[in-house]
Amino acid sequence: MRGELFHPDRGDISLDKVLHALSDPIRRDVARTMHRDGPRVCGQLSYPIAKSTLSHHLKVLRESGLMTTEVRGTTRVISLRRDDLEARFPGLLDAVQVTAPAPEEASRAS
Amino acid sequence: MRGELFHPDRGDISLDKVLHALSDPIRRDVARTMHRDGPRVCGQLSYPIAKSTLSHHLKVLRESGLMTTEVRGTTRVISLRRDDLEARFPGLLDAVQVTAPAPEEASRAS
Description:
The structure is a homodimer.
Chain A: H1 15-22, H2 25-37, E1 40-41, H3 51-64, E2 67-72, E3 75-80, H4 82-88, H5 92-95, H6 103-108
Antiparallel strand pairs in A: 1-3, 2-3
Helix pairs in contact in A: 1-3, 2-3
């Protein structure tokens, strides 16, 4: 049900692309939200940015291998690929404060 | 002896900039080399890229807070800021295979 959207296989997930995807605070926050609250409908996300900018962020997250996008009729459900990431790069999601957010990070949004 | 080169204070090291710096395989390799072999003279680094490109990579590493550049006469000595990074983002250098390189990463240079 992933439709024609590109998702890299686990073995093809590139550290370059994952780190680039995680280098943006909004993309990290989306990843953190999926970790904390589970799969999200895209419309549930709310950020003070243009819809096209958010769409771009979601594309970067999906194409890097950080999340899946599942098309369900007119909605899209996004999920963190936690198991795939943990298998490829153990400890990374913790270290970048996605699965173990640091209090200072949440308030600083560096 | 750091001269006028910009180095962020430990508390100002930004996760955004560190992850961006680490998203390039040559920059990760420079960081890994400094971790493995200690401080390096810039001229000791050898990569199949233009000197100006390498200089850019070293600037990104320095300005992100990943390393210091110390000017000693006509040479520049670069050092990994391991303690600063570990204090700010525990486990990150391990997770990105700088201080704990994965065999597959070394050969794939993903």
